[in-house]
Amino acid sequence: MVISCHQPNYIPWTGYFCKMKESDVFVLLDSVQFPRGVCKGTSWVNRNRIKTSNGELWLSVPVKKKGRGLQIIKDVEINNDTDLPDPPQADWRKKHFLSLWHFYKKAPYFNEYIDFFEHIYNTHWDKLAELNIAIIKQINVWLDIKTQIICSSELDLTTNKTQLLADICNYFKADTYIAGSGGMKYMDLSIFENSKIKVKDYRFNCIPYPQFWGNFIPNLSVVDILFNCGKKGFDIQIPPWRDRG
């Protein structure tokens, strides 16, 4: 049994889904703290990048922060106030949809996917995690990912950090945990060793694929590879992780 975990990010990058596909169970960490970096606009939970004629563009979902202190991800609410003084946050759904439409309408696979995003952005969302998970699950369908998806909030585990990851593995009786390269920097590997859980260091290297507008930009939101190349573009990105030692 192979487990991997990640926060429920907004329109995640391709590597996110490659790691998911190589797992038997993928746990969305919706019960962990919403990254404080969001105050500086640095969290992948509420924003991601697409490619435009002027380079990369960040699409950010505005969230309610004032007076809320530290929040867990599943409780974070979207700020849908269209009268916000900051124009980039006002009417974010319209902005995100029109950005996809404008910059990908000539892409070869645009028509295969845009109707779903039109539906998503015509729907009112209150909770950030619910929006993100709805998008993630549909992308899984497109990419033919059969991995079981579970939210950590469903597991009733009270630990945190590395112990939480090990407890998730133990919950599913997993013998292998796939860790992102960023996660390897802060995990206490001895906790996995004590539970006899093997940790695989996942290092995703994006293979260049056709894009519009100049030099290739790697690691954009997966929507970039979908609109430009469809599922076949994703399939060539998957490394044979289970065949490695």
What does this entry look like structurally?
With 245 residues, the protein is an alpha/beta fold. It has one domain. It is 32% helix and 14% strand. The strands form two sheets. The chain has a five-stranded parallel beta sheet, sandwiched between helices. A two-stranded antiparallel ribbon has the order 3-4. The chain is globular. The C terminus is likely disordered.
Features:
single chain, 245 residues, five-stranded parallel sheet, two-stranded antiparallel ribbon, 7 helices, disordered C terminus
Concise synopsis of the structure shown:
32% of the residues lie in helices and 14% in strands. With 245 residues, it is an alpha/beta fold.
Separate helix tally:
7
Describe the largest sheet. Answer: 5 strands, parallel
Mean pLDDT over all positions: 91
| Quantity of strands, as a count | 7
What layout of secondary structure does this protein have?
Blueprint: E1 2-6, H1 14-21, E2 25-28, E3 47-52, E4 55-60, H2 92-104, H3 110-121, H4 128-142, E5 148-151, H5 161-171, E6 176-180, H6 189-194, E7 198-202, H7 222-235
Parallel strand pairs: 1-2, 1-6, 2-5, 6-7
Antiparallel strand pairs: 3-4
Helix pairs in contact: 1-7, 2-3, 3-7
